[in-house]
């Protein structure tokens, strides 16, 4: 169930958010009756500190430490740390803070309520937050619901999240919001001219497919393309066991665009949304595609296969070429595409590529405001020669090991010609260790930044 705010009630206990510099003022003001108690407890406003405030034999409220400016810049969603420590019941943020800060901490509370309980019961926090005045509660609940969908999809193991199951999840989302939904699968991919999606997925008994969802009848056209490799063995260039361990998350791009789509539809944004997901399993069998094969893409460009483990860009290429035939106002691809991106920026930052300075500024600002960190990487054109082999138009895995994320982005860009505004995200989709509001496991990246930036990326002046 998607996390929700508690109903407004006078019974909600206050929680005060303070920094070390705020503490003395709080003790002489709102917290005067608890000043001695807090001092005796040793509370100093350090990041993550929590002190329950008594009234008789029960709890009257709590005070939570934000830390100083340096700590606040290093830790986002800080209030999430308090959620599981607070007694059951409704709570309200009593401190006076800017709306952006209240929105961040309110979203932190909602996201901290997430539990992946498909296979084992999980204790859920009983403390609920009343939405602070001034925050857009509907928007925050929509964002939390989209993020929780993304997490659920990524966290589900491939045994229960293959191409067909991903189709079922996407179709359920389409039905919920009255979107249209089409599928091309199996040998139909060859008949409909999606040869690279078919080539990558044909070795698996779980048929490859292309999912196509459309929603909205008015406004600018936004197309989201998500990599849906439900499990990646590496194909004939088999991954070692250590590298295969997290490959259930290789459909993280698909999960993230579905989460973002859910946010957009729940908020009723005035745009025409299309979501394309090539859903495959990269397996090994007698009909696996091979190193040195040359594939002809939907666009007609030929691709020499120099590593069957660089399959994500192949399925995305056919989907991008298909999307580009409509020349949408904005096209965004999201994929757990390269290890090189992780080496460059680590697991927490979502690198993105665009030729538009306007889009780059909007996404950077959107990421800052939404507390969804992103980082622009370059479409460095001198590297184009690295993806041009001798016997085909393109090379799916240039040798040498340099600039792996950039060359993958340049490869994808070759399949987008009619769309002027194209953004590619090379995300990780996984939280390697627990952090506030982000338990270890699947996580959305870039979706909140995109949602925040959409009014600048597209004309949404009539959006609701």
From TrEMBL:
CDD domains in UniProt: Peptidase_M17
GO BP terms in the entry: proteolysis
Keywords: Aminopeptidase, Hydrolase, Manganese, Protease
Sequence ranges assigned to domain Cytosol aminopeptidase in this UniProt record: 307-314
Entry GO terms, CC: cytoplasm
Molecular function GO terms recorded: manganese ion binding; metalloaminopeptidase activity
PANTHER family per the UniProt record, alphabetical: LEUCINE AMINOPEPTIDASE-RELATED (PTHR11963), PEPTIDASE B (PTHR11963:SF20)
Family as reported in the entry's similarity comment: Belongs to the peptidase M17 family.
Name by which UniProt lists this protein: Leucyl aminopeptidase family protein
Native source species: Qingshengfaniella alkalisoli
């Amino acid at each position: 169930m998607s996390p929700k705010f508690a109903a407004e009630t006078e019974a909600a206990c206050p929680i005060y958010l303070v920094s070390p510099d705020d503490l003395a003022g709080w003790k002489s003001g709102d917290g005067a009756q608890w000043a001695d108690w807090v001092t005796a407890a040793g509370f100093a406003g350090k990041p993550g500190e929590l002190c329950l405030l008594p009234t008789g034999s029960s709890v009257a409220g709590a005070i939570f430490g934000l830390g100083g400016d340096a700590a606040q810049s290093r830790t986002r969603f800080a209030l999430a740390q308090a959620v599981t420590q607070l007694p059951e019941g409704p709570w309200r943020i009593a401190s006076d803070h800017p709306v952006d800060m209240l929105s961040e901490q309110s979203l932190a509370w909602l996201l901290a309520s997430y539990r992946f309980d498909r296979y084992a019961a999980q204790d859920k926090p009983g403390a609920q937050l009343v939405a602070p005045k001034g925050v857009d509660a509907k928007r925050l609940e929509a964002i939390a619901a989209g993020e929780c969908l993304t997490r659920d999809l990524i966290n589900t193991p491939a045994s229960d999240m293959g191409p067909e199951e991903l189709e079922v999840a996407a179709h359920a989302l389409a039905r919920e919001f009255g979107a249209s939904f089409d599928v091309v699968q199996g040998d139909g991919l060859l008949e409909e001219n999606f040869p690279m999606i078919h080539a990558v997925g044909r070795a698996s008994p779980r048929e490859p497919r292309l999912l196509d969802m459309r929603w909205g009848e008015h406004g600018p056209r936004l197309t989201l393309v998500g990599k849906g490799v439900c499990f990646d063995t590496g194909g004939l260039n088999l991954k070692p066991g250590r590298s295969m361990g997290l490959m259930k998350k290789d459909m993280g791009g698909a999960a993230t665009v579905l989460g973002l789509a859910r946010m957009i539809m729940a908020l009723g944004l005035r745009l025409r949304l299309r979501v394309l997901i090539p859903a495959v399993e990269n397996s090994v069998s007698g009909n696996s595609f091979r190193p040195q094969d040359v594939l002809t893409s939907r666009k007609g460009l030929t691709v020499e296969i120099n590593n069957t483990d660089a399959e994500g860009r192949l399925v995305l290429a056919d989907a991008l070429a298909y999307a580009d035939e409509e020349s949408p106002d904005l096209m965004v691809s999201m994929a757990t595409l390269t290890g090189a991106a992780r080496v460059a920026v680590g697991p927490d930052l979502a690198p993105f590529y665009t030729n538009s300075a306007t889009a780059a500024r909007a996404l950077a600002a959107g990421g800052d405001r939404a507390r969804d960190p992103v980082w622009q990487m370059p479409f460095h054109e001198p590297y184009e020669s690295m993806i041009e082999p001798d016997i085909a138009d393109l090379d799916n895995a240039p040798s040498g090991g340099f600039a792996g994320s950039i060359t993958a982005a340049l490869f994808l860009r070759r399949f987008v010609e009619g769309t002027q505004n194209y953004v590619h995200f090379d995300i990780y989709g996984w939280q390697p260790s627990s952090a506030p509001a982000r338990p270890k496991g699947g996580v959305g990246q870039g979706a909140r930044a995109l949602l925040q930036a959409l009014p600048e990326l597209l004309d949404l002046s009539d959006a609701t």
